[in-house]
Write a structure and sequence with these properties.
By secondary structure, this protein is α+β, with helices and mostly antiparallel strands. Helix content is 17%, strand content 23%. The chain has a domain of 238 residues. Strand 9 and strand 10 form a beta hairpin.
Length: 381
């Protein structure tokens, strides 16, 4: 009797057991689906852990000083060795090709922020200064070519990506490297440092707009086509994939992957500001205040010093101008999906451009102050 009763009870509970099993299966499938979606999105942006502009203020403070600029709000000026001739997207770094276009890989520990968010500009007194921004990109630069050289320049403040490109970077913002040495490990030694008439630069305006095709957000300039680069390069172009880093750190290459910290930026500022900053006037009054003893601040950019024994300055690397690369074929190639102009003909120009004059003014220290501005850019009060 007991055996029969147990068997009958099991038969009655069997539908309930099946229902519980089905719920477990559905839960497991749902979990796998959510995980797959997160991982798929993680391949491009780490949206799971957004940060605020305050992260820029805090993480970059040990490597430079924050200066409140009357036009751009809170801007950042890096501390640099006295012998280093710094220029954005040139000094201590190189280009790597990815599925998102040519990506700048910086050797600086602060490069994850300053070369992938915001904009750079040149101040006659402080030198190169960085403005924080909300959008990540492989590099915020404009691309072109001239007389057998690939060329690029930082995009200035308030400059956005568009097909009908009318903004022209100043001549000294541009960097020129021969076609054949663009992918070489010692490309920096072949930089062309003679004056170039920027009107002769042919702009490359192919745009990556995979994130927001109908918006200026999430778009950037892709750079030269790989086929064109390989046509003249001495080495083949290797394509890298992305891997997201979990914390701010120097961009590295590991197992053929580019390990990058690139979180989403929360645009709610809520009165965020650097713990320590100075105004432009205060920075000019006392350039060295707060800076490391062995490094110069932006206000000291014109101080003449002797580099360490056995090391060259940036200017000494280019004393010998490399030979011209092979002449390009005089044919025209039309891009099928964008408005890029490929290198079809080369020109030579003897016109000279003049870089803005530099001043060397000395001037007190200040830990925190307040100023009013109408700027709405990140870093504005």
């Amino acid at each position: 009797m007991m055996v029969g009763a147990n068997r009958s009870l099991k038969q009655k509970n069997q539908p309930l057991l099946k229902l519980k099993a089905m719920k477990k299966i559905v839960f497991a499938l749902g979990f796998l689906m959510v995980t797959s979606i997160c991982v798929g999105g993680h391949n491009y942006f780490n949206y799971n852990v957004p940060i605020s502009v305050q992260t820029f203020y805090d993480e970059l403070a040990p490597y430079g000083e924050w200066i409140y600029h009357p036009q751009y709000g809170y801007t950042w000026s890096p501390y640099l060795p006295y012998y280093e001739d710094f220029k954005p997207y040139v000094t201590r770094g190189h280009w790597v090709f990815t599925d998102l276009g040519w990506t700048w890989v910086s050797d600086y520990p602060w490069g994850w922020a300053t070369f992938h968010y915001g904009r750079w500009f040149f101040d006659d007194y402080f030198g190169w200064m960085w403005i924080p921004g909300y959008e990540w990109a492989p590099a915020w630069v404009t691309w072109g070519y001239y007389d057998g050289y690939w060329a690029w320049a930082p995009m200035g403040p308030n400059m956005y990506v568009m097909n009908n490109y009318s903004w022209r970077a100043p001549a000294f913002w541009w960097t020129f490297v021969p076609f054949r040495y663009f992918c070489s490990t010692n490309w920096y030694s072949y930089i062309y440092n003679r004056p170039v008439q920027i009107n002769n630069i042919t702009y490359i305006t192919n745009i990556y707009n995979g994130n927001n095709p109908n918006s200026n957000q999430g778009n950037w300039y892709y750079g030269p086509r790989v086929k064109e680069v390989e046509k003249y390069s001495t080495v083949p172009v290797q394509k890298r994939t992305f891997e997201d880093a979990s914390k701010p750190d120097k961009t590295t290459i590991r197992d053929n992957k580019l390990v990058v910290y690139r979180p989403e930026i929360d645009q709610k500022q809520d009165n965020q500001k650097p713990v320590k900053f100075r105004t432009v006037e205060e920075g000019k009054a006392n350039p060295k205040a707060g800076g490391p003893a062995d490094q110069r601040t932006g206000g000291e950019m014109n101080k003449q010093t002797t580099p360490p024994a056995g090391q060259r300055t940036g200017g000494e690397m280019n004393k010998t101008v490399p030979n011209k690369t092979e002449p390009t074929k005089k044919t025209t190639t039309t891009a099928p999906t964008d408005k890029q102009t490929t290198p079809s003909s080369t020109k030579s120009s003897k016109n000279k451009s003049t870089a803005p004059s530099k001043t060397n003014t000395k001037s007190s220290t200040h830990e925190s102050s307040s100023s009013k501005t109408t700027s709405t850019k990140p870093g504005s009060k």
